[in-house]
Write a structure and sequence with these properties.
mainly alpha, Serine Threonine Protein Phosphatase 5, Tetratricopeptide repeat
Length: about 325
């Protein structure tokens, strides 16, 4: 009689536990929070107090609470997950500290935010995670910028920026140059600030980020105002407000996309608004943006049966 097969149930349970937590994380990333919450609840029902996956489950539940605007709950779950991850010497503790810092920042507890970020920085140094080390250093700089401690902000931005350049992280470069420029401008270094705004603009244009271009337009407008160029400042501020409203229609990253003008009603208001974007883009020297927006204006005019006007627009 052959021996009875060895039971694989314990391994199956372990696999299910890990899978549930991972499924919860995947559902969150794909904008399906209700399903993510279900998977988290199922995972917690199976997990024991010493299960390695428990820390990840709490960290995921904390992120879901943060997404829903429940920052105190997010903080509580992140702290639970971090404590368990630290006991297990799990590198996930570092990212838990970053997420804890974000939740604390939303509660305007800046000193605790900085403490969480600094602890995360130490862990990223220990595990030699260079990319995330730079990211958390930029976060530290952002807190100091928010507190108007501009010299401290510059220190942390300057620590982070070389890594972003080395890894060619265009998203973070676009943000760090904008924020560093604001810090430089606040310290009275207007020419240096303009150089950083120009660097940021290069990346925002390459990434097609409308909201980013709007932020730069606003920042350059403030700089112009400080230098006494009030006409340029007014144009840039109006354009920034318009760009922000356009970017809001394209989602969180505010990307330029062809569907924007097609979804808008083809009215005189839209045509006038797009013309203002062109004026703003010209003031910023953003040739690619001008080309894109001109295409929208022309398409809008053609849709209105105004072919001659569209030809005049193309001729400038």
């Amino acid at each position: 009689m052959p021996p009875a097969p060895r039971s694989s149930l314990p391994w199956g349970i372990v696999t299910v536990k890990c899978a549930l937590t991972r499924l919860a994380g995947a559902c969150r990333l794909h904008g399906r929070p209700a399903e993510a919450q279900t998977f988290v609840a199922q995972a917690l029902a199976l997990l024991g107090a010493h299960d390695p996956a428990l820390s990840h489950t709490y960290l995921t539940r904390g992120l879901l609470a943060y997404d829903a605007g429940r920052f105190a709950e997010a903080e509580e779950d992140q702290r639970r997950g971090i404590a368990l991850a630290m006991q297990a010497r799990d590198p996930a503790a570092a990212w838990g500290l970053v997420n804890l810092g974000v939740a604390l920042r939303q509660q305007k507890r800046e000193d605790e935010t900085l403490l969480a970020y600094r602890l995360a920085e130490q862990l990223f140094v220990e595990i030699d995670d260079v990319a995330n080390l730079a990211a958390v250093r930029m976060n530290i700089g952002n807190v100091y910028l928010m507190r108007d401690q501009f010299q401290e902000a510059l220190h942390w931005y300057n620590l982070a920026e070389p890594t972003f350049r080395q890894t060619e992280d265009r998203y973070r470069l676009s943000d760090i140059y904008l924020n560093r420029g604001i810090a430089q401008r606040s310290l009275g270094h207007l020419a240096v600030a303009r150089a950083d705004f120009e660097r940021s603009l290069v990346y925002h244009r390459a990434l097609n980020r409308v909201v980013g271009v709007a932020a730069i337009a606003d920042a350059v407008g403030v700089t112009d105002m400080l230098e006494g160029d009030y006409a340029s400042a007014r144009t840039l501020h109006r354009g920034a407000a318009l760009l922000t409203s356009i970017g809001a229609q394209d989602g969180p990253r505010g990307s330029w996309c062809g569907r924007t003008w097609r979804n808008w009603r083809t009215t005189e208001v839209v045509t006038t608004a797009l013309a203002q974007v062109v004026a703003t883009s010209v003031a910023l020297g953003t040739t690619e943006v001008v080309t894109t927006v001109l295409a929208w204006v022309v398409a809008t005019l053609v849709a209105r049966g105004r072919l001659k006007s569209s030809l005049r627009c193309l001729r400038g």
